[in-house]
Design goal:
Distance between the termini: 51 Å
Strand content: under 5%
Structural class: mainly alpha
Largest sheet: none
Radius of gyration: 16 Å
Order of helices and strands: HH
Number of strands: 0
């Protein structure tokens, strides 16, 4: 039983890792007004993690359509 729990915990940590890079596709837009995150942070990934951790949607903290707005 302990072995199964250990395997589950290790597999969750491997699956939850941030992807190493984007394969092809158009380059992402440069984020504006970053005050806490580093400029090279994968912002969509970080925001998805915040959404899951807080149990809210983007518009809880941001203005819909203009996520860089301070209003």
């Amino acid at each position: 039983m302990r072995f199964v729990i250990l395997v589950l915990l290790l597999s969750v940590s491997v699956v939850a890792q941030q992807p190493a890079g984007r394969a092809g596709g158009a380059p992402a837009a440069t984020p504006r007004k970053l005050k806490v995150l580093a400029p090279d942070t994968d912002v969509p990934f970080a925001m998805q993690m915040f959404n899951q951790a807080l149990g809210v949607q983007c518009v809880y903290c941001h203005v819909e359509g203009d996520f860089a707005s301070d209003t």
